[in-house]
Write a structure and sequence with these properties.
Length: about 325
């Protein structure tokens, strides 16, 4: 596991990270999102201690990496693997040679290195590309090579710094699926730094929002999506278009409980004794809970009755003119 305690970073008079606290357990994927300039890239560099924090601690499996000597830190860094936005592969080295690079620096024997590389390429589904060169690979394949290389020294923590940025949807889905499989198989703690909110919903167990160097909101993915007061939860909601209502009032409805009945539209119509039309919806099943939102048209009903009926079904409701837009977090 990894834990940050009061981690701060200053450049002169400018504070880039301000007393950041969070922990990620083994087997957990923790996403960090935030607007441009929030400090996400600096956070990744400070976690790996490539950029020394001004104050605070980075603790991995109970050991405070921030207090180690240079020699001790070189050893301790092996516990943290990093996947970068740019794959960083060497163009004149084959796929297998790129994955083997950390092992070469460590002085692993050629035979042990070949065995480890073969195992890693098998894990990421690229055994057949071992002798290929980076220019012969797709963007998604290059990123999978980067993942294999990040795992070479058997880390317990992985930092994914915008690893899916710039990939097409299919490649992003492949990388996300691979990270979740590796998390489960190797019991990894993964810090997933990104600006892609759809990807967060696909990969994360928990999410934190970084803004002006501070964690301003965090929680489990499902609890945030179910909380109608959460700004982070709203930004994580999928966006979906809807048709305008031709009669009555239009309502924006958001799931706020895991117990919303699947036939809630029919129940609502029966309770209000009026016609209900579904104008649009974006609803998903995440971690066993239903999350998302819908836009409905109600032919005729008192507003207070609508609120009461939807609340009893585990739904948060606002007239469309009152509904806050579902937005994506900036990169």
């Amino acid at each position: 596991m990894i834990r940050l305690e009061q981690l701060s970073k200053q450049y002169g008079e400018t504070t880039v990270l301000d007393r950041v606290d969070f922990s990620v357990d083994a087997g957990e994927i923790f996403a960090v999102v935030g607007p441009s300039g929030a400090g996400k890239s600096t956070l990744a560099q400070c976690i790996t201690l490539l950029e020394p924090p001004t104050s605070g601690a980075v603790i991995v499996n109970g050991d405070n990496l921030s207090s180690l000597s240079s020699a001790q830190l070189r050893v301790a860094r092996r516990r943290i693997g990093t996947i970068f936005q740019r794959d960083g592969l060497f163009s004149r080295r084959s796929v297998a040679q790129n994955v083997a690079l950390p092992l070469e620096y460590l002085g692993v024997t050629a035979a042990d290195s070949r065995a480890r590389v073969a195992d890693l390429l098998d894990r990421v589904g690229l055994s057949h590309k071992a002798r290929s060169f980076p220019h012969e690979l797709s963007g998604g394949q290059r990123q999978r090579v980067g993942i294999a290389r990040a795992l070479a020294l058997r880390p317990s923590v992985i930092i994914s710094d915008e690893a899916t940025s710039g990939l097409d949807p299919d490649s992003t889905a492949t990388v996300v699926t691979l990270l979740k499989e590796l998390r489960d198989e190797l019991d990894l703690a993964i810090v997933f730094i990104t600006h892609e909110m759809d990807t967060v919903r696909s990969v994360a167990d928990s999410v934190a929002r970084l803004d002006h160097g501070r964690i301003v909101e965090s929680g489990s993915l499902v609890s945030l999506l179910h909380d109608p007061t959460s700004e982070l939860g709203r930004s994580l909601q999928p966006r979906g278009a809807h048709s305008p209502s031709t009669a009555g009032s239009t309502w924006f409805v958001r799931y706020r409980a895991a117990t919303v009945p699947s036939d809630w539209l029919g129940r609502l119509s029966s309770t209000l004794s009026t016609d209900i039309s579904l104008l649009g919806a974006s609803i998903e099943l995440l971690h066993g809970a239903t999350v998302g939102h819908a836009t409905i048209g109600i032919s005729a009903a008192d507003d207070s009755a609508v609120h009461h009926a939807l609340d009893s079904l585990g739904l948060d409701a606002r007239r469309e003119s009152q509904a806050e837009p579902v937005t994506q977090a900036a990169s």
